[in-house]
Amino acid sequence: MNNSIVSNIKPLGFTWVTNDPFLFCVHHNDQYPKGNDQLGPNASLNGRSIGQDFAQENDWRMYHGQTVPGFPAHPHRGFETVTVVLEGFVDHSDSNGSTGRYGNGDVQWMTAGSGLQHAEMFPLVYKDKPNPLELFQIWLNLPKAKKQVTPYYNMLWSEDIPKEKITDDQGKSSEITVIAGVFNDTQAPDPGPDSWATDHENYVGIWLIKMEANAKLNLPKGAEGIKRSVYFYKGSEITIAETTLKKYHSADLDAMQDIEIINGDDEAFLLILQGKPINEPVVQHGPFVMNDEAGIRQAFMDYQKTQFGGWPWPNGEVVQPREKGRFAIYADGREEVK
């Protein structure tokens, strides 16, 4: 093993360990069955801990949903969520009055800032076939100076997220989806006005990589001091600097080194996270991420007092009609339809 390039190899669990400026990443991969009339699973829920269903031995989970899988209304403060939906759909609603449905390659970037409630439900829109859902939710920290900014919600639609295709000297190809940052000359859309990722000097990168069997890919060098990690979530094995990484393992990479990834005999899928550390104290309690315990106490008191603007929806598990397509309605009334 070349420890100067590859280090900290570990298996991936339900929650993935990340480096500053990220807080963690969760990989949801649920093989939901056909849907019923309520957009929930057309299957028995007997034996499940409804409202708290995280049993990893099952093919799919209800999470905190009672009828529809997902996460009913809950608050956040002090950080950002980046939700990358590879397959399936998510219905969003929040305390600012925003709502929408997104999926199949779309990314939602939400800056919780001073405080926001939102719901993330997973509607099973197909009654005649299964409803697989695969997504990442990545938590990206905010620096102290930005923890009280006005909440912001932005959609990065799959049609607008750039991809770069690279072919190696053997004709094998890799495709890089650039959700944040820059890969070679391919620049991602800006996520929002107050994100740590908006300042390009922070070198935040969120890249999805798909490699053909036996393909080789060179990662571009980063800036000094940034943290870079690779999460190998689907395939057989990859090799980096003579170090073999098995499926569903992660590793930290030296971003200042020339790095070549060599794929094995199966198609490989990787997530790469990188960024300049914020280098501030992090205190997390449930849905709040602040710099100290006093900030956490204040977050709870503010939420109890204001409910972060209240909840303008008839219930905490808002789902759109089955026939509704991908769309977003923002707090200012602006609407996007895909």
TrEMBL record:
InterPro entries: Pirin, Pirin_C_dom, Pirin_N_dom, RmlC-like_jellyroll, RmlC_Cupin_sf. It holds the Pfam family Pirin_C. It comes from the Bacteria. Belongs to the pirin family. This is Pirin family protein. Residues 209-309 form the Pirin C-terminal domain. It comes from Carboxylicivirga linearis. Transmembrane segments: none annotated. CDD domains: cupin_pirin_N (cd02909). Residues 63-140 form the Pirin N-terminal domain.
